[in-house]
């Protein structure tokens, strides 16, 4: 296993944000030999969210960090399931073994907190500061460090990684002319709860302008999510009652999940994405990462996966891109933008296209959509998997440090 190089204050990196992308970047930079400080404005690293899926591309990136197999052990390996209509009729079935063979590994599901804890454990305890709001005051350049302002004073850094989310203040500072994220046309609900006595196969259900998904977690709980076309900024006094109104008449196990939920179990968030990509993912000595760089709809389940890819590519740039006369940090960040901007933009655009299909609001159109998918699935059972070609089969340039075990 390659050993980290000696650390030095001269190689200091400051990461703004302690979410999945920020901690993955910090862990990767720490492994590459940099001294890392993570600044998280929240009082703890406890994530706001439910569960997330990790596809083989992100798991291979986690292999580079040495925790891919641990995550595979902690997560639920998604089995056979498929796509259903609100009546419960199966529109198409998925074959987990075929998907794993096609993309070189499984799709897994775990709680966000599990991934956060695993990534944070890769860092020295003193590297993470919570309750620490921070602001970029100078992006730096080839001749001077970047500067970050905190309540305890100013920090200088060779590299600043902005993983400060979809409404990134750092992004607005670096690219003030960019229009920012746009509303994707729908809102989402998520919950993780126990539903005793209910057995089901993983599924996603597509209606007219609405979807629902139900998946088992390894600890026995259920992860459920829903989405619906609606105006932005809306909230109900009781989001569980809102879900009952919209989905309570759909097939089992959806009514049982909603019956077991409490209003406080339900999280609701509007969905946004970039209609116009950024001109670059870096400026000066600052790199943007994850939702700060490329927010996307969740329709491909790739938001967190792409952030983990970002982290590994940023920390381990390819040597052939470091041959110019510029400073190493300039080479590294140019390589990062060159590698990540086209890929993240393509994944975002594909997620937007998928959202137009699965969130189709016209009832007649939705019925035709479901009929076409059913017919295609019968004629070519593996055809729908092709939608993840070029996404789930991505591999980092570094060889994995961990072996891929089977369940």
Automatic annotation (TrEMBL):
InterPro entries linked to this entry: FAD-bd, FAD-dep_Monooxygenase_BioMet, FAD/NAD-bd_sf
GO molecular function terms attached to this record: FAD binding; monooxygenase activity
Any Pfam family hit: FAD_binding_3
Lineage top rank: taxon: Bacteria
Key words, A-Z: Monooxygenase, Oxidoreductase
Boundaries of every FAD-binding domain copy: 13-351
Gene3D superfamilies: FAD/NAD(P)-binding domain
Name of this protein: FAD-dependent monooxygenase
Organism expressing this protein natively: Streptomyces mexicanus
């Amino acid at each position: 296993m390659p050993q980290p190089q000696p650390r030095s204050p001269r190689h200091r990196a400051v990461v703004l944000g302690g979410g999945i992308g920020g901690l993955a970047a910090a862990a990767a930079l720490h492994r590459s030999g940099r001294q890392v400080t993570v600044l998280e404005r929240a009082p703890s690293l406890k994530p706001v969210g439910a569960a997330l899926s990790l596809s083989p591309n992100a798991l291979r990136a986690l292999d580079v960090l040495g925790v891919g197999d641990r995550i595979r052990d902690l997560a639920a390996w998604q089995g056979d399931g498929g796509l259903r209509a609100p009546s419960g009729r199966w529109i198409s079935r998925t074959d987990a073994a075929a998907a794993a063979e096609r993309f070189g590994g499984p799709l897994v599901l775990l709680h966000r907190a599990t991934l956060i804890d695993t990534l944070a454990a890769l860092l020295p305890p003193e590297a993470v500061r919570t309750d620490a709001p921070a602001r970029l005051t100078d992006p730096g350049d080839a001749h001077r460090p970047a500067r970050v302002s905190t309540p305890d004073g100013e920090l200088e850094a060779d590299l600043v990684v902005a993983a400060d989310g979809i409404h990134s203040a750092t992004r607005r500072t670096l690219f003030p002319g960019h229009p920012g994220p746009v509303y994707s046309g729908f809102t989402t609900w998520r919950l993780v709860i126990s539903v005793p006595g209910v057995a089901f196969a993983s599924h996603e259900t597509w209606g007219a302008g609405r979807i629902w998904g139900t998946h088992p977690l390894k600890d026995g709980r259920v992860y459920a999510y829903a989405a619906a076309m609606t105006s932005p900024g809306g909230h109900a006094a009781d989001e569980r009652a809102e879900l009952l109104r919209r989905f309570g008449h759909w097939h089992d196990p959806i009514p049982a999940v909603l019956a077991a939920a409490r209003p406080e179990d339900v999280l609701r968030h509007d969905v946004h994405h970039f209609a116009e990509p950024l001109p670059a993912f870096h400026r000066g000595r600052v790199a943007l990462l994850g939702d700060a760089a490329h927010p996307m709809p969740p329709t491909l389940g790739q938001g967190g996966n792409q952030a983990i890819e970002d982290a590994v590519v940023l920390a381990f740039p390819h040597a052939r891109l470091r041959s110019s006369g510029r400073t190493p940090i300039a080479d590294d960040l140019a390589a990062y933008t060159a590698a990540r901007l086209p890929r993240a933009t393509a994944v975002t655009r594909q997620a937007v296209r998928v959202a137009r299909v699965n969130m189709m609001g016209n009832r007649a159109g939705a019925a035709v959509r479901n009929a076409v998918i059913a017919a295609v699935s019968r004629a070519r059972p593996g055809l729908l998997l092709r939608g993840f070609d070029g996404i789930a089969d991505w591999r980092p340039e570094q060889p994995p440090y961990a072996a891929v075990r089977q369940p």
